[in-house]
Amino acid sequence: MPEEGISGINMVWVMRFSGFFSAAMAMIVLSPSFQSFPPAEAIRSSQLDSYLRLPSEQPSLNDRFSFRKASQFRNAKNCRSAGHNITSVCDPSLVHVAITLDVDYLRGSIAAVHSILQHSLCPENVFFHFLVTDTNLETLVRSTFPQLKFKVYYFDPEIVLNLISTSVRQALEQPLNYARNYLANLLEPCVRRVIYLDSDLVVVDDITKLWSINLGSRTIGVPEYCHANFTKYFTVGFWSDERFPGTFMGRKPCYFNTGVMVIDPVKWRRVGYTKRIERWMDIQKTRRIYELGSLPPFLLVFAGRVAPIEHRWNQHGLGGDNVRRSCRDLHPGPVSLLHWSGKGKPWDRLDSRRPCPLDALWAPYDLYGHAHWNTA
Q1: What is the pTM (predicted TM-score) of this model?
Q2: Strand 126-132 vs strand 95-101: parallel, antiparallel, or unpaired?
Q3: pLDDT per position as a tens digit, 214-236
Q4: Predicted confidence band at 14 (pLDDT cuts at 50, 70, 90)?
Q5: Taking residues 20-36, what's their average pLDDT?
Q6: Which residues does 318 contact at the CB level (< 8 Å), separation at least 6?
Q7: Separation CA 303–CA 277 (nearest Å)
Q8: Rounded to the nearest 5 degrees, what angle is found at the Cα of 255, between the Cα atoms of 314 and 310?
Q9: How far apart are CA 246 and CA 12, in angstroms?
């Protein structure tokens, strides 16, 4: 890949922000580089045209959502697809990205896709795999991104309804939150690598850099956070039962966030990791070994067995904790992906005119038709 224009975000973020949007925006304006774009290009919304609505036969969604159509991005002259048309999901030049489409988080998913296209050197090479429980959302995606290469996969909630246990936050109990467990089984066999992304994030770097990381012999790659207190992700009952802690024997388990993962679906299927995750979920139903949604089963199966990725690819926790909508600062270091994991979501806080400073970094990617904020 040519070196020009691929510098990413080569900056160190100051860790204290004031309570005003201007402070957050200044971090971008003053940065020497924001992916391959000048600072002014990085912070402005793309040129967008007419508002689009869903077909009239879908009144419930039509009343709730109206997204502007995104402009087509062609960000580099020399892309791998130059000279031929990509006609198949099996084309080897594709970068595969999987995201869930859920009515409650749809605005975030659209913003995530928009951010990836805006910062990819070759956006025409990115293929999206959307996991849904409502197939009507396909029309909305196609209207918002007319040139997008994507496929919609229906995820049957019945697959996990009997396995889901109560969590600290109701949103973590939604069936689609567990679709990532079955991603390898849903994708076409020719897809040998996929990036899974949550719906509450934006990518501010070329996604191909994340795609190209070396997994080695591992099945998944994630940013690890070994300074975190790993024991708190499981209950006292888990640690006091002599059978359960032994699962980490011979491993050096570290916390990681499942909202950003590079996955090898071929290895996943061969080892049978879906069944391993399901077994822990089944134990949870009777023994209550954790409190936090879909994350702990992933930790039980993969912690200490992942390919480490730079922290820049998951600056998570920007939504605060899972109980309060607290404001958070960024971790030290460069940033390639901003992730509003936690209870507070930027679109909710912006609409209520009670945003956190960093929510201003999400706003330029929002294509929602009624997004008009007064930040004064």
Answers
A1: 0.81
A2: parallel
A3: 999 999 999 999 999 999 999 99
A4: very low
A5: 37
A6: 328, 330, 338, 339, 340, 341, 342, 344, 346, 356, 358
A7: 12
A8: 35
A9: 40
